[in-house]
């Protein structure tokens, strides 16, 4: 995404404007500004760029493909519904991920499991070991997915943002409302928690 | 909340470095810290194993397969987009979107979307402090008016008391006292909410309005409270009341507040801090 303006300027050098040619700005932010001005078709390229990463983000948070597909759809619905609250120049990626986090939080609150201490049971070492031993025998990836699923939601989110979505600590800090340093410490704690579950 | 990973049975030399190991494995340590960890690793097989595990974990995480959405997602998205486009001329959001570009060219508020939580709390604390100061001054500096003292003994409903206080020259501190003593549990058909809303919207004194905000928040179980707070937002001009209202709307997770917050974020007579607060509220609600 960050490459887009560079590529565009190269393109302009090699392809000077002709009167009949209109070149559409293609940065995320420029597209979103268009969407904001009711040019809703400009959401299509944004969908193409972001639906896969957002889906994978939500998939790793929820562990459920079908739910993640609905939630991803909901994110784009909210982009349209709340487009007036986007501000020109605001980094689009951070904005849409914040929407995705809110969609996930709302989903989680609506579908909260009854307080049956399922989490407590899942976090006892013996359950983790037997479940993982079984899974590891069949598939290492499945074991790792399982270990990720056993992490508390906020630790899983940090790992997913950092490892899979390519967010640096400063960006994570911005999303979570903390400093980059604090985000780094949280990410390390999450990694340590995952190590304990995975290798226990 | 989190499973603490400070192990109790580690040797002291390992425990001292425990927090640095993930950063070491990630290659994020400064040279002096790295040298420190390496000196320890040379003599500690247990920590060496941990590092190996971090590295394995890192590689395996990278290798995890990526889930792909089904083609229906694109179909559904396109259908949704068509619906929204069809609804565009009559849609409720259209006026807001139209108003947007005009305002964009004028004064622009930079979004400090995720400001440190401490600042939010300072603002809340400042608001609460104002109320508290108002209450304390009211109680210490002025004798209770006879009307208020009498109303205490007869115990009429809060609604009656406030309504009386509004028409008669009761002091602001009396009114704050009345509002602050509003019950926290509301009975059905009780006029308390309505009177508090009326106080919030019409009382000339911002401290009384703040107290009404707080009292309404305590009655948040009542379905009328959320929408009353939303509708009060455009009526308020005092920054403390505005900020408190935004905080409460976010706390109550009231998505209906978003259009009003958007308007407030664009209001040129609002203080920058209020507009920032409104923008941040939007970020948290949408």
UniProtKB/TrEMBL annotation, chain B:
Question: Which superkingdom does the taxonomy of this entry point to?
Answer: Bacteria
Which Pfam families does the UniProt record give? Answer: HEAT_2, zf-HC2
Q: Where is the Putative zinc-finger domain?
A: 14-48
Source organism of the structure: Hymenobacter crusticola
Q: What's the name of the protein?
A: Putative zinc-finger domain-containing protein
């Amino acid at each position: 995404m960050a490459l887009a303006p560079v590529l565009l300027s190269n393109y302009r050098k090699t392809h000077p404007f002709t009167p009949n040619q209109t070149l559409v700005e293609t940065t995320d932010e420029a597209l979103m500004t268009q969407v904001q001005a009711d040019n809703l078709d400009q959401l299509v390229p944004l969908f193409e760029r972001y639906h896969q990463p957002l889906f994978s983000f939500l998939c790793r948070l929820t562990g459920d493909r079908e739910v993640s597909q609905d939630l991803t759809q909901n994110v784009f619905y909210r982009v349209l519904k709340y487009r007036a609250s986007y501000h020109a120049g605001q980094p689009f990626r951070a904005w849409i991920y914040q929407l995705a986090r809110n969609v996930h939080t709302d989903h989680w609150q609506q579908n909260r499991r009854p307080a049956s201490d399922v989490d407590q049971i899942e976090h006892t070492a013996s359950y983790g070991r037997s479940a993982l031993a079984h899974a590891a025998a069949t598939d290492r990836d499945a074991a790792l997915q399982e270990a990720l699923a056993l992490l508390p939601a906020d630790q899983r989110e940090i790992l997913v943002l950092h490892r899979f979505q390519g967010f640096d600590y400063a960006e994570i800090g911005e999303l979570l409302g903390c400093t980059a340093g604090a985000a780094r410490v949280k990410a390390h704690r999450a990694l340590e928690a995952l190590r304990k579950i995975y290798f226990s | 909340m989190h499973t603490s990973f400070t192990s109790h049975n580690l040797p002291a030399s390992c425990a001292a470095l425990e927090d640095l190991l993930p950063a070491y494995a990630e290659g994020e340590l400064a040279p002096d810290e790295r040298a420190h960890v390496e000196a320890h690793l040379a003599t500690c097989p247990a920590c060496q194993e941990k590092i190996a595990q971090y590295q394995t974990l890192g590689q395996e995480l990278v290798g995890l397969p990526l889930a792909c959405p089904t083609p229906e997602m694109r179909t559904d998205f396109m259908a949704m987009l068509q619906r929204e486009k069809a609804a565009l001329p009559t849609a409720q959001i259209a006026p807001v979107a139209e108003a947007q570009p005009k305002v964009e060219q004028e004064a622009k508020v930079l979004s400090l979307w995720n400001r440190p939580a401490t600042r939010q709390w300072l603002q809340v604390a400042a608001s609460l402090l104002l109320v508290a100061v108002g209450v304390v001054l009211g109680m210490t500096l002025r004798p209770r008016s006879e009307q208020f003292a009498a109303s205490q003994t007869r115990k009429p409903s809060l609604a009656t008391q406030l309504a009386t206080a509004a028409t008669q020259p009761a002091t602001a501190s009396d009114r704050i006292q009345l509002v602050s003593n509003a019950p926290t549990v509301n009975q059905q058909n009780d006029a308390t909410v309505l009177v508090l809303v009326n106080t919030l919207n019409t009382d000339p004194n911002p401290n009384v309005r703040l107290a009404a905000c707080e009292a309404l928040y305590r009655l948040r179980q009542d379905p009328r409270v959320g929408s009353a707070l939303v509708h009060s937002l455009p009526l308020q001009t005092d920054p403390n009341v505005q900020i408190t209202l935004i905080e409460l709307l976010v706390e109550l997770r009231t998505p209906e507040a978003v259009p009003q917050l958007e308007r407030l974020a664009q209001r040129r007579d609002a203080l920058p801090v209020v507009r920032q607060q409104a923008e941040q509220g939007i970020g948290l609600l949408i």
